[in-house]
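Chapter summary example.
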Amino acid sequence: MIDIKVGWQSGVAVSAKEAKIILDPTSGRRVGKNAYVLVSHAHADHTYGLGTKARKYAAAETIAIYEEVSRKRLGDVVPVKLGQRIRAGDINIIPLNAGHMLGSTQFLLETPEKTILYTGDINCVDTLTTESAHQGKCDELIMEATYGDPFYVFPNRQKVYARIVEWAAAQARNGKAPIFQVYAAGKAQEIVRLFNLYTTLPVIASPSVSRVNEAHIRFGIKLKYDDASGREGSELVRGVHVFVTTYRDAMTFSGKSSRAVATGWALRMPSRNFAAFPLSSHADFRQLASYVKATGARKIYVYTGYADVFSEYLRKQLSVDARPLPALAQTELSDFQIS
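The structure predicted for these 339 residues follows.
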């Protein structure tokens, strides 16, 4: 029997006899050049592995978005396609759709002894820019639990869309420009697409959002907008429009405006001087629980977010072996070190 170790070590680590795999490493400090690095999507907290010297794999969409955000070109990352097998020693790696954002990927690891599924960040409902996560089957599941608390049950997505449009239309009727501060990759494009489909309001995007928009357009996501840094965009900023920007972009707004955010955390945000809509690119508590049940997994490792809460729920309600992802001692993975 092959000894396979699963745990956390600057990322989710799976160690077998002939292959060392690290999924979404949070730094390159303990990632050796002989490891296989799998990057699930292009959000900044998941892309550290793209800068390592290891063998790196990510969806072409993830690579394109990363290059737009970082303004760096990657020449040593192998693009993967959904369903296409990657051989890593004695393990087959199969990329599956995660539904979280364009290019987001789960990874199914087929070992000689068992199958292990790594979800990364997943979303189990269709959005305007993504399809819901592929429902995988596995023996063991490594699952994120960002919203793994029973409190986080999101409203119907179509109803949230309607609320966003209604709010923005009301601001526009009052001569105010609705401004959405969201993540540049993923959520921003969903907001742009929403207003393209259901309103005639012009959409302006900040430069960082515009760059990611272009990556989406190259992969077939239809988005109509103007870049705020361009002449046409600058002129539109003075009128009534929808402005899509990020939390970090330092943009000045002329004229009257109203600010909004769109995030799952809106369910617990106190009432302030902005609108908050519970629109998330993550699975909520019920989706996570349903996903776990459908996998048929005998063992579940939970990480991020409400790992303790969600693990306890799975043990009590589904009677499965669920636990937070354990830390691995460096002595167990010594060849992950860079020599």
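To summarize the output: The first helix runs from residue 60 to 70.
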